[in-house]
Structure formats: C-alpha cells, structure tokens
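note to self: dont lose this again. the chain is below, predicted strucutre after it. 216 aa total, dont forget to put it in the shared folder this time
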Amino acid sequence: MKSNFITLVIALALVTSSYSQNQIIYPQGGVIGGLSYVIAKEIMPEHGFLPGKKFPTYPTINQFDFQDLKLKVTLYNDRDEKKLTKINCSQIVLNNETELNADQGTVKVWDYLNTLFLQSKISIDTTSINELEIRLTALDCRLIGFGQIAVHGLCQMEIKYKGISKTYCTDIEDGDKNAPLSKTSFVSRKTATRYMASAAIRETVEKFLTDLKDWK
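---
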C-alpha cells in the first residue's frame, strides 16, 4: 500500500500543484502560505472536531537555534500500512480510535513540524540538498484505569536524515515532568486526550531536534 505523504514546501512554483487525498502539499509563508492555511483548516478546524478545547501546539521545552538550516522535509503517514498495536517505548495497546486516527493526525504532525522547525531557526526548502524523511507510524491517546484514570499520549516516528534512520517514540502520561496536565487537572476526557496526544507529538519532535544538534 502506497503511503500517504505530505511535502512541506516554501517554493512559489508549487502554487499550481495538484492536491489530492493521497498527496497534500502545504506551502509555507506568503500568499501560498495563506492557501495552505485554508486547506489545513478544512481538515483541522480551529476549535477541534468535537465540542471542547482545540488542540494546542506546545513549544519545545528546550530552545534550539539551527541558524537557518535548510531542509527538504517530507512527511509520510505510514499508520495504515504499519498497523502497529504497540510502540517501542510503551506496553500500552493502541486502539487508534481517536479523532487523530486519519488525516487529522497527519495535519497536526505537519503543524508541529512547521511550527517547531521555524521556532528552531530551520527553513523548510524543497531546493535543499538536505533531505529529511519523517514517517508517522503511530499516534494515539489512551485513558487507562478506573476511578483514578491515567491519560497517555502515544507517538512514534521513523526519521531518516543523511542516510541514517532512527525511531523516535513517546509515551507521556499526565503528571509526567513535561506533561501539560497534572494528576489533579480538572478537564474533560476529550480535552485531556487532545492535550496529551499533542504533547506526545511535541516530545517526539523535540527528541529529533535534540539529536539534530550533533547530526547536522
């Protein structure tokens, strides 16, 4: 099965590119950036898919400055192909029944890459010889237990850069050091799953950025 993929670009020529369910191009910046926002918003409404809080995009815990490193970035959605039931760093079983299961999850990962890369002084550029391949293999959030419920955000990506592939994996639970929620936070289950799934994406991307300091 051919993987769905998203290419993140800033080249003006891509304004005329065709869009489909299998290949969604999100140009970055300027007029074409405005076009990409409209397309993304159709998939990822500002206030979420169901009643409740919207999905936040959290900044990295640590700050990075890659001094305008230019990367050609391609994001693949391999979840349907992989059909993982667990990720490498967790024993929790994925059920893939959240609102992030389909295109919405891929768009949210794109949002994180676009946002955190820019904040880290990384330029997304299709003409760059530095190619970064990111494969989203899992994204889920689970409510575990009865009474005192634990909320787990789960994310896994396979990232290839300069001929080297690494797997980055996150299982973040409410109350963890970098979690946006404590064990005593008073939020709805829907909001809790959104916050923790979003935090899992942030943690996974930040692990890559930490490695990239020595990788580049």
